[in-house]
Amino acid sequence: MPHIILEGLPTAGKTETIQMLARFYPEQIEVFPELVKQVAAKEKINILSERERLTEAIIAELPYRRAQLESVAQQGKMCLEESHMGVHLAYSKALNDRSFINAYGKVELSLSRPNLYLRLAIPIDVSIRRQKARKTPQFEVDRPTLKQMLVHLQEWHIAQGSNLRIVNADSSPSTLLAQVEAILPLRYTRKGPTTKNTFGTLLLLGRPASGKSEFIDFMNKCSVERRAKRYHISSFRVIDDFPILWEKCEEDNLWEDLGRKRLYSQPIKGNYYVTDDGLWPFLIGKINQQARPLLSRTPPSNETIIIELSRGKAHGYSEALGYLSPQVLSRAAILYVQVSFNESWRRNIARYNEKKSGGILTHSVPREEMKRTYREDDWPDIAQAPCGMLTVNGITIPYVTMSNEPELTDIDALDSRYHKALDQLYALYSRRS
Cys-Cys link to 3, which of 79, 272, 279, 317 (CB 3.0-4.6 A)? Predict the structure, then answer.
């Protein structure tokens, strides 16, 4: 499992962030407090004035810290550590502490190299202000020292070739924590019987406006308990390739504004159609990229990942499924939401007219793109029975084709339609598993 170290100026929020993560993810991570502070407290050493004694105590403690890190990693937990010896070396250079500078070569031999350094970045002025508010003058570090320390720390990271990520810690606590969670990545999932018998990954396929977004909206409005029991969907995340496609089209606008040629798309009536068919496999690559950190967590998450996409015959589902990674396919089930081309076009227009134009959330697919890309659909070619098993790249995947005509708005009718299809799909899924 990863070894990740948080660094930053005094009062950047390292301790508070780590403690909060430890509280909510006790089974996923093990926290290691800042070694320098831990040693100083244990030996009653003044960090600023007793530098030689501090160096000796750090060197004595390093082998034990490394052994602890290795033991936790073997248990399959993430090691989350506050600060590191590179920071202490940077402070030592700023303070001209020759004892640690001279000993660093020996220290480096005892270090465990982390997978990631995560810097909680705040301006020096903010650190000074927060230090004074903390009212612990014995630990306050002045502006010149902090400024020099940052320079030396950056030099150290460059020399090390560190994998360093920076987040803005001059923000609200919730924003900071969300940034850190997204990078690690971590997400709170309530454990218990409600998450049993649920899909790992649900591939939600179908023509534009076939009802995929309505399906997700319906599931969002269910309690976790009911959704898991009745529809076999736990707490879930959605990966949708349409926002990625839309972003590429918007980037084309920027290129055009700069007098450059558009790369992927052409605008039409406030929307776009695709001119470079290389975008279709590119989008699957982006799906794999977004899914990878969610599928590689240890212990495995109980949440369901819903992957939503539409394809036509020229670059159809057969091609798209083939580009999905083995990690996605090995835990996937497919729900294909079936509507005719004419019904897809009718709902596409109705959706747009109802919400009016206003960006990605009220998009419609232009008629030209609908005809070119989605008129023909290869799903009936690869899934000839209403339900069954597909083999993609040697991996068996259960599927159910759910007819979504006529269009329903009644909650009870939708419940019946979704329950029947997902119950049937989960029966195939559990047999495969």
Answer: 79
Residue 26 — pLDDT band, cuts 50, 70, 90? confident
The better pLDDT of the pair 122, 2 is held by 122
CATH match of 3-183 with 3.30.360.10: no
**Is there a contact between 284 and 321 (Cβ–Cβ < 8 Å)?**
no
DSSP 7-48: EESTTSSHHHHHHHHHHH-TTTEEEE--HHHHHHHHHT--TT
Domains 3-183 and 193-432 share a fold: yes
Per domain, the residue ranges of the chain are 3-183, 193-432
| Residue 116 amino acid letter | L
* Position 259 pLDDT exceeds 90: yes
> Is pTM, for the whole model, over 0.85?
no
Using 50, 70 and 90 to split pLDDT, how confident is the model at 302? confident
Average pLDDT, the chain: 87
Half-sphere exposure of 162 (CA within 13 A, CB side): 26
Burial 50-66 (b: 16+ CB within 10 A, else e): ebebbbbbbeebbeebe
Residue 229, burial from CB neighbour count under 10 angstroms (0-12, 13-18, 19+): middle
Q: How far apart are CA 90 and CA 160, in angstroms?
A: 13
What's the pLDDT tens digit per position in 390-411?
999 999 999 999 999 988 889 9
Q: Nearest Cα to 16, choosing from 70, 98, 82, 63?
A: 82
For domain 193-432, the CATH architecture is: 3-Layer(aba) Sandwich (3.40)
Q: Tokens representing 102?
A: 């001279």
Kindly report which listed range (47-56, 252-261, 422-431) carries the lowest average pLDDT score.
Answer: 47-56
Q: What is the dihedral of CA 64, 26, 80, 13, to 10 degrees?
A: -120
- What does the block give as tokens for 300? 């495995």
* Locus of tokens 């929307």: 271
For residue 227, the Cα-to-chain-centroid distance in whole angstroms is 23
Query: If you write DSSP's letter for every residue of 162-216 in order, what string do you get?
Result: --EEEEE-SS-HHHHHHHHHHHTT------SGGGSS--SEEEEEESTTSSHHHHH
Closest CA to 61 of 44, 78, 39, 79: 39
Tokens 């810690």 appear where? 169
Q: Is the distance from CB of 87 to CB of 47 less than 8 angstroms?
A: no
In tens, the pLDDT along 325-373 reads: 999 999 999 999 999 888 877 877 776 555 544 444 344 566 666 666 6
Residue 398 forms beta bridges with which residues?
Answer: 389
